[in-house]
Design a protein that fits this description.
Layout (H helix, E strand, L loop, with lengths): L1 E7 L3 E3 L15 E3 H20 L6 E7 L24 E7 L6 E8 L1 H22 L2 E3 H8 L12 H13 E5 L11 E5 L6 H8 L13 E4 L1 H10 L4 E6 L1 E3 L4 E3 L17 E6 L12 E5 L13 H16 L11 E6 L5 E3 H14 L5 E4 L14 H12 L3 E5 L23 E6 L23 E4 L7 E5 L2 E6 L5 H14 L4 H13 L21 H4 E2 L3 E10 L3 E8 L6 E2 L1 E9 L14 E13 L2 E6 L15 H8 L5 E5 L9 E2 L5 E10 L9 E11 L6 H10 L3 E5 L1 H12 L6
Parallel strand pairs: 1-25, 14-16, 14-18, 15-16, 18-19, 19-20, 20-21
Antiparallel strand pairs: 1-24, 1-35, 2-26, 3-7, 4-6, 4-8, 5-6, 9-10, 9-11, 12-17, 13-23, 22-23, 25-34, 26-33, 27-32, 28-31, 28-34, 29-30, 29-33
Helix pairs in contact: 1-2, 2-4, 7-10, 8-9, 10-11
């Protein structure tokens, strides 16, 4: 077996040298004055509405695009004034319709004078198109304006603004005001659109008395049914998102526990600690000395005996899973647990959980891995992230931690697919589904995607199923269970081993899990049930590779538009490079729930492959043929970029397909390969600057030869510092670092 290699060296940084050029339409596209007239009339009706409804001092305008649009094709000439950027006014987004006709809807908050300016611009454009282009302006006409073959004469609207309005009109189907109506019978968590008026003042104006105890953040609050009714009667246009506060927990199958068995376990030493957020923990179990228990449940709430079951069972796997289930011995040893009881069995308050989790993490920043096996019965909404998941993503962005979350279970044995429940829609977390011991999706599994696009779950593991349940320790002895709640703890153990014992960053640890699960036969297909694949049982299958494979890791931060190296030497044999290649990128971006379906603020694009020189320039011939961001004309629709290259996803997996007829790669130049990381931002604030990333690269020799020594020597020759990640050495280093030193 070969150990993982860590390459350390100098990444180069470069700002974006490409420019978008003047506004233009797609080839053979056109805009008719009748469509401009419709848009103008719609804005006039919207203006009249907001002149009568003055609660927010401005206007909320929903822009319905014709399809899913790239940031470069959002409106630029409308809903703005002077040099202002309309993107700064976006306060929400969602999808309308179903694939393949799904389209973006963005909600903007603007002042009334900007609405009037947009109406005026449309009026001028209508006159120009009617008088100079016969009621229809084409891309050829725009090319003539841009090349100055046709002189632009209007003095009331600049040429750039004219072209921007025409381009806007091509991509925009209509303008509207969205209203959130309907009855609400339960207490709910409401998110309102962000305006210039404080949320508390808005609600007070309506007659809802807001107190700080009901506020989650600037725009998200908890309201009772009568308060929600009042809000919808007076200002239904304010509500961006609504979810029930009381969530029923997804059930697990549990067989009656047997008589308590006396199990021996040594006292804990310097083992690492995993955090568990769950139902209460029963401290009298045989491994109780390995667990520090903290109750976060109001002391006035009565705790029933059954409330201890779930939390105790989950923690038993984290502490001593391999002893209880020898067939799943992962080689990770035992872990200590700091267990926080936050909910009773059966249901939980999202609002209370949100408040508790932030407090827990903030006070326990030494814990880097957190297991969360609580999940909602209700399926996620396709247009927004749940409040719980959004808070988890925010916490993971602020702190150097990672959550491992259960993928939730079906309530009944239903044949149809059910979407996963909150908080399994957390994008930065590792979301785990279950498979049976035949590697098939468990009978109770639920499916992604999240926001109609993001792959969730991330990975799968064994959680017990019919015929072969998972053994756990319950308050009354051994129990047999099944559910995603019991697959997640096994992954928490593995990722904790990678972070604590091996010293990897959370980005690398997550990438290694996904890379190992995917292998050369990735499973991230349209079913969204298994994720990228099933994680291997033994930790050595993640930290080591077969003799014919070379696996190396690279880490860095995005301090400019592009972070790159063209200096990775791949061994050459008989003037060819006989390797299959795979690369996995992971990063944890900042996210904004207020942005709806455009939830992640930063996109990191990866190019990995051979370095090729042409026309005096070096480029990377990426193994997945990715040309996004390359110089020259590379037309690619937003839907295609998302489908082919996972644009905006925080996990990227590039992989060759292994087959018997593969031909070794042609060598370009001196045989070096390149890695390029390019950053794109959704918002003007550069949230991607300083963002950490981790890349795991696996090379498989086509004829089965072990060429790792050649690779190490070539890397050292080119100035790379090569660290061989030896599991035993890392484990010894961790134990030494955790020893207590007593001074005389």
């Amino acid at each position: 077996m070969n150990n993982i290699l860590q390459l350390k060296g100098q990444f180069q940084q470069q700002n974006n040298l490409n420019s978008f050029g003047p506004p233009s339409l797609p080839l053979k596209a056109f805009v008719e004055s009748s469509h401009l007239e419709n848009l103008k009339n719609q804005l006039q009706q919207i203006l009249l509405f907001w002149q009568k409804n003055t609660l927010i001092k401005g206007a909320l305008v929903s822009v319905y695009y014709k399809h899913v649009v790239a940031k470069s094709n959002r409106i630029k000439g409308l809903l703005c004034k002077g040099s202002s950027d309309p993107n700064d006014s976006i306060c929400g987004s969602k999808f309308d319709g179903e694939p393949p006709t799904m389209r973006h809807v963005f909600t903007y908050y603007v002042m009334l004078d900007i609405l009037k300016e947009s109406i005026s611009r449309l009026e001028i454009c209508i006159n120009i198109v009617n008088n100079e282009y016969g009621g229809k302006i084409t891309q050829d006409d725009i090319d003539a304006i841009n090349s100055k073959k046709k002189k632009y004469k209007n003095i009331d609207l600049s040429k750039t603004n004219f072209l921007c309005v025409i381009k806007d009109a091509y991509y925009v189907q209509k303008f509207d005001i969205d209203m959130n109506t309907g009855d609400s019978e339960d207490r709910s968590i409401i998110t309102i659109y962000k305006t210039d008026v404080a949320t508390k003042d808005l609600l007070n104006e309506i007659g809802i008395d807001m107190i700080n105890a009901k506020v989650i953040d600037d725009t998200t609050i908890r309201l009772d049914p009568d308060e929600i009714k009042l809000l919808k009667e007076n200002a239904p246009y304010l509500i961006a998102m609504e979810v029930h506060d009381l969530r029923k927990v997804t059930p697990e199958e549990v067989q009656a526990c047997s008589d308590p068995r006396v199990t021996q376990i040594p006292p804990p030493k310097q083992e690492p600690t995993i955090g568990v957020i769950d139902t209460p923990f029963y401290e009298e179990v045989y491994f109780g000395q390995w667990v520090t228990y903290v109750s976060m449940i109001d002391e006035n709430i009565k705790i029933d005996p059954r409330d201890y079951d779930h939390g105790t069972e989950v923690t038993s796997i984290i502490v001593d899973g391999p002893t209880i289930n020898p067939e799943l011995d992962d080689g990770c040893g035992r872990f200590k647990v700091k267990h926080f009881g936050v909910a009773k069995a059966g249901s939980f308050s999202s609002f209370s959980i949100l408040k508790a989790i932030r407090e827990i993490v903030a006070k326990n920043q030494d814990i880097k891995v957190w297991n969360l096996s609580l999940g909602s019965v209700m399926p996620i909404d396709r247009n927004f992230i749940s409040p719980e998941a959004a808070e988890l993503d925010k916490i993971q962005s602020e702190y150097d931690i990672v959550f491992v979350i259960a993928g939730t279970n079906k309530i009944d044995d239903l044949p149809e697919e059910i979407a996963i429940g909150a908080p399994a829609d957390s994008l930065n977390a590792v979301v785990v589904n279950s498979v049976d011991f035949n590697n098939r999706p468990a009978s109770y599994h639920r499916v992604g995607p999240v926001l109609s696009f993001f792959h969730k779950p991330d990975i799968s593991y064994y959680g017990g199923d019919r015929g072969q349940l998972m053994r756990v320790c319950t308050p009354c002895g051994e129990g047999l269970v099944s559910g995603t709640s019991f697959s997640a703890p096994w992954i928490s153990r593995k990722i904790a081993y990678l972070i604590y014992n091996m010293g990897f960053t959370r980005e690398i640890a997550k990438a290694l899990l996904i890379d190992a699960a995917a292998g050369w036969d990735r499973m991230d297909d349209v079913s969204h049930s298994i994720g990228y694949g099933i994680v291997p049982r033994r930790i050595e299958e993640i930290t080591q590779t077969p003799d014919d494979e070379i696996r190396f890791i690279m880490t860095g931060s995005c301090d400019a538009y592009e972070t790159y190296t063209y200096n990775i030497p791949i061994p050459i044999y008989k003037n060819k490079q006989p390797f299959f290649a795979r690369a996995t990128l992971c990063y944890l971006p900042k996210c904004s729930r207020n942005q709806g379906v455009d939830y992640t603020s930063t996109e990191i694009d990866i190019h990995f492959g051979r370095v090729k020189e042409s026309d005096g320039k070096a480029t990377i011939k990426s193994i997945n043929a990715n040309k996004q961001g390359d110089a020259g004309f590379n037309p690619l629709l937003e839907e295609e970029a998302r489908k082919l290259y996972r644009k905006w996803d925080n996990i990227k997996l590039l992989s060759d397909t292994i087959n018997d007829r593969s031909i070794p790669r042609k060598v370009y130049g001196n045989g070096t390969w390149g890695l390029s990381i390019k950053v794109k931002e959704r918002l003007r604030a550069k949230n991607g600057r300083g963002l950490q990333f981790g890349v795991v690269v696996t090379l498989k020799e086509m004829s089965g030869e072990n060429r790792i020594d050649d690779f190490i020597k070539l890397c050292m020759l080119r100035g790379w510092i090569v660290n061989t990640i030896d599991v035993n050495n890392r484990f010894d280093i961790y134990n030494k670092s955790e020893e207590e030193i007593h001074f005389n």
